[in-house]
Amino acid sequence: MSSNPPVIHEVFPYLRVKGAADAIAFYVKAFGAVEKMRLVEPSGRIGHTELQLGPTVLMLSEEYPEYGLHAPQGETSIGASIHLHVDDCDACAARAVAAGATMEMEPADQFYGERSCRLRDPFGHQWLIGHHLEDLSTEEMQRRYDELMKRA
Question: Which residues contact 15 (CB under 8 A, 6 or more apart)?
Answer without folding.
Answer: 23, 58, 59, 60, 61, 123, 125
